[in-house]
Amino acid sequence: MGHARRPHSVLRSLALVAGGGLAVASFAAVGAAPAGASTPSASRAQTITCPTVADRLPAVPVQAKAEVDRNLGQLDTQIKEANARLVSSAGQGGPNFVQNAILGPLKDKRVATINRIATAIGRVAQRPAGLDALAPCTLTGAGDAGGGGQAGGGQQATANPTAADFIDIRQVPRSAGGVKTTRSGSRGTFTSRCGRNQNGHHNSANFIVAPGVENGAHHIHDYVGNRSTDAFSTDGSLSRAGTTCSNGDQSTYYWPVVRLRSAADSAQNDSSAADLNIGRVLVPSTVSIQYRGNARSKVTAMPRFLRAVTGDAKSLTNGTANARAHWTCTGFTDRVTADKYPICPSGSRVTRVLDFPSCWDGQNTDSANHRAHIVFPDAAGACPSGTKAVPQLRMTLGYTIKVSKAQIAKGTLYALDTFPEQLHKPITDHGDFENVMSSRLMRKAVTCINTGRRC
Predict the structure, then answer these.
(1) Tens digits of residue pLDDT in 300-332
(2) In the chain, what are the domain boundaries?
(3) DSSP assignment of 297-359
(4) Which of 68, 75, 131, 218 has a Cα-to-Cα distance from 208 of 20 to 30 A?
């Protein structure tokens, strides 16, 4: 296609729908978190958190991609191992045990790994400076930064979320009206059916952000569309695979699973539990994969193999600059919450809405942080200068979850899978996508959107 692949880590409508459609309120600021959403407060659970290296890298030369990706995956593995050590060593050592036995060795490992990343880039481009400052990690929660592992961080982390992380949707203020589409905008939709992941396509990988790392996400993903997606997926492997989509769309769409848990559940001793994700994985009741137009202009075809992410899986510790979580309930879609899970009335489904960026730079199908090559429209719905509008992806996921405030207080609740240190907070919701549509199918989608048709 002639588009550059940058290494490492669409809005008004083309839709892939399963299990029934849902009319979702527009959000006042395009793609932004709901108005009034607050940054989640820190939990008292002990977890080890480290600065994110990938977001601080320059554009990675293609010659260095494999080595950089491999070492970024190793950094994630090191954090996981350190948090596992924190859990297993609870109650051991003196006041400086965590610093001497866990944080110190972790820093040494990260210094070596970060140096390998800088060296790999430096062989073919200017060596990035200042990365060593990202090596030290910190112990968050439970107050004692130098403690002896007394707090039982893993047990406390699995106690999250708490009742304070839930809100009755009827108590959430109504959202402001969304951006209005102008006469020059694009109003059409394109719809196909890709299922609800009834076939159970799950894994804890993320080939976009951590390619080649089998547990790179440290949480389980649901997949629809491409049947082959795993840690080792490439553009080529995806293009050769089958799909769950009825129109032959081979794109891969994925998001973290939602689990239902109860205080009465038996002990869980699988790899998910090791990552502090417990409970029964829920199959979504409805899945809509919807591409939409732009409020200010027509859309152009997105290139095959374009990759995009939305939200921030580490927004609890990174802050909410990239957070895009939208939680609501059917029948109440004018009420949206970002940092609390909704409690829905009887007959209403818990609903997640994941809007993706849709202003493409016209050249790259990926970028070092998986965000720079495709960004969100501004508050008026227009794409920034130097970018062009492409069909915007909206994932809408519905769940039949019957839990009351009283049940939640007793430990029966639902929660996202997350990285261990993210404590299952709803603000960490996110999604990933690679476009593997044929050029013919993409042309059909663009035509439908630009002519105002619902195909």
Answers:
(1) 999 999 999 999 999 998 899 999 999 999 999
(2) 4-43+161-450, 47-157
(3) S---PPPTT-EEEEE-TTHHHH-STT----EEETT-TTB-BSSSEEEPPTT--EEEEEEPP-E
(4) 131
